[in-house]
Amino acid sequence: MLEYYGLLDTALDLFFNTVCALLIITADVRMLASVTEQTARIANLALAASVVFIFGSTIVLGVVLDT
Asked: Which end of the chain has fewer CB atoms surrounding its CB within 10 Å, N or C?
């Protein structure tokens, strides 16, 4: 059950949540900047591999079902 502790508690909760969110965003940007630079290249490779795999699987399935 949720219990209301008053307006001051609500204001402090909002302040604490805001400060923590800003700290997490700051840390995230600094720590993951190098990862995000590589994301586009990784996504392109994953997409190309997926297309080749699906195309190959479709051909193999067609051959197997045809025989």
From this structure: N
